[in-house]
Amino acid sequence: MPAVQRQKGFVFLLVIVVIAIIATLWLATKHQGLISAFKNEEIDESLMALKEVKRRLLEFSVLNPEIYLTTTTGVLQGNDKVPAVGYFPCPDLDGDGLVSGLESSCGNPLISGNSASGFVPDPLSAIGLGSCTGGGSICTGYVPQEIDTRDVYFAPKKRYFYVLDERFSTQNVFYNDISGVGPKRYAPLAPSRLEGDPASASSSLDSFDPILRLNEVGKYVALIIDAGDNGLDAANNDGDNAFVSGRGNKYLKNASDEIVGVTYDPDDPDIPGVEYDDQVVGITYNEWITLIAHRVCGEHDRFSGDAADFDAVTVTEHWVKDYHATDNPLGSEWLSWGVACP
Fold first, then answer.
1. 166 is a domain residue
2. Residue 154 included in any domain
3. What DSSP state is assigned to residue 127?
């Protein structure tokens, strides 16, 4: 075979190889693009589902008086038995979808200097429930599926993890009317009771900001966590009040705001950090108070001033009134706070 023909054959073969390599790379890129597109769509759907659970929890919080307006047999309660607005259900600790027994009296009182206190579930002391067995293992509860006696639905059982500033939990044993005869206007939820540095508070009866933190930002009332198939990230399962969401260069910090768990130079941008893949949606204090303010101010207008619809409410117990000066001196204080309504 002449040399020229051999050279042409080699060039032709080389072109075919190059085309094959380019085609392979193109297909690989398209394949990765499709995978990324499906992955992004899956993440978006998961986030939408989390936001829907958040909406249901907020709806429950705003509508507490209506939800508990009757007994479980449908008999209307008197004004002195109707709870105030603003509370959320306790976490489901055993994964059965319901809030019952010890779960329905949740609380973990703030202990000064203890970052594992002030929110529920108690990460160390909820003995015998779910992953909290023995009182020595870390415990994180789930968003309950439902409160069946009230026809309220939140999420599929054992699907989303859930943590909550304890002052916002229904039937909190540390704030209940100790006489047991009145409505359990559970905790001091007036804005005046939710301001201040938690580190300066010595007990749950002091005033301090909502205690939960997400991605190093504070003042979260509640957090809903989608852990995916691999369980909670270590940073979200360590028992303190600081949580992280999403992938990225996030460094885990302890209660003293010190970096832990990784050796690094904070001024070196090439350090990759620690990746987290839990998706977390939070309810901030500002989101909560905005909705509650609309509700409280609307109710306040109905029984105060010249155009009051319900004058009698000012002299009988009602969910917006301060409650039980002796048994629960902090009460809910919504009536006095409502004076500031426009």
1. yes
2. yes
3. T
Kindly state whether residue 8 falls inside one of the protein's structural domains: no
Which residue from 191, 169, 167 is spatially nearest to 333, judged by alpha carbons?
A: 191
Contacts of 81 (CB under 8 A, 6+ apart): 182, 183
Q: Is residue 253 part of a domain?
A: yes
- How far apart (Å, rounded) are the C-alpha atoms in residues 316 and 80? 8
How many Cβ atoms sit within 10 Å of the Cβ of residue 63?
Answer: 14
Cα–Cα distance, 239 to 279 (Å, whole number): 18
Greatest C-alpha distance within the chain = 113
What sign has the CA pseudo-torsion 329, 208, 144, 236? Answer: negative
Q: Specify the amino acid at residue 17.
A: V
The answer to whether 169 touches 88, Cβ cutoff 8 Å, is yes
The pTM is what? 0.75
> Which two tokens mark 33?
């693009």
Nearest partner of 130 among 89, 99, 168, 174, judged by Cα: 99
Q: Which amino acid is at 65?
A: P
| Helix and strand totals (H; E) in the chain | 4, 9
The total number of structural domains that make up the chain: 1
Task: Supply the range of the domain harboring residue 142.
Answer: 43-340
Query: Residue 280: enclosing H or E segment and its boundaries?
Result: strand 279-284
pLDDT of the chain, 342 residues: tens digit per residue: 565 555 656 666 776 777 777 777 766 665 555 444 444 455 568 889 999 999 999 999 999 888 988 888 888 877 667 777 888 998 988 888 998 877 777 878 888 888 888 898 766 555 444 455 544 556 788 999 999 888 999 999 999 999 999 889 887 766 665 555 544 555 557 777 788 998 888 877 788 999 999 988 999 999 999 988 878 888 888 888 999 887 554 555 555 666 554 444 555 555 445 566 789 999 999 999 999 888 877 776 666 655 555 444 444 556 666 655 555 555 566 766 666 665
Tell me how far apart the alpha carbons of residues 4 and 116 are, in angstroms, rounded to a whole number. 81
